[in-house]
Amino acid sequence: MHFDDDTEGWILSIGDAEQSHVDLNDPRRVFYEYLRRIANVVDLAGTPGTPLRAIHLGGGAMTLLRYIAATRPGSPQTVVELARELPDFVMGRLPLPPGSAVEVIIGDAREELPAARAGLAAPADVVVLDVFRGADAPQHLRDREFYAGVRDLLGPEGILLVNVGDDPGLQFLAEQARMLGRPAGPGSRPLFEDLWCLTEHSMLSGTQAGNLILVASTRQIPPEWGEALRIAGPHPAAVLDRWELEEWLESL
Question: Can you tell me the distance from the alpha carbon of 53 to that of 156, in angstroms, rounded to the nearest whole number?
Answer without folding.
Answer: 12
